[in-house]
Amino acid sequence: MKISYQEDTKVFRLDAAGMTYAMSVTDEEGFLSHLYFGAGLGDGDIRYLTRTQEMPWLASRNDRDRGSFLDAQPQECPGNGLGDFRSSAVTIIDSKGQRGIQPLVTGHRIYDGKERLEGLPHTWCRDKSEAMTLEITLKDPSVGAELILCYTIFDGLRAVVRSARIRNCGEQAFTLTKLCSCSLDFDYTGQRLLTLNGSWGREKRKQILPVGIGTQSVSSLRGISSHQAHPFLGLLSEGADQEQGEVIGCNLVYSGNFLAQVERSQFDVLRMQMGIHPEGFAWTLAPGESFQAPEAVLVWSDEGLGGMTRTLHNLYRNHLMRSPWLHRERPVLINNWEATFFDFDLEKLLAIAKRAAQSGVELLVMDDGWFGKRNDDNSSLGDWTVNEEKLPGGVKRLSEELGRIGMKLGIWFEPEMISPDSDLYRAHPDWAFSYDGRRPCRSRNQYVLDLSRKEVRDAIFDQITAVLDSADVAYVKWDMNRALTDVGSHAEGAEAGSLFHRFMLGTYELQERLITRYPDLLLENCSSGGGRYDAGTLFYSPQVWTSDDTDAIERLTIQEGTSMLYPLSSMGAHISVSPSQCVGRLVPMTTRGHVALAGTFGYELDINHLPEADAAMIPGQVALYHRFGELMREGDYYRIASYQDNHLFDCYEVVSGDKTEALLTWVQVLCEPNRRSKRIRVPGLDPDRSYRIEIADPAVQDDRWDGNALRSEEIECMQSFLNRDISGRTLAHAGILMPKLRGDFRSVLIRIAAV
Ligand code: GLA
Question: 0.85 exceeded by the pTM?
Answer without folding.
Answer: yes
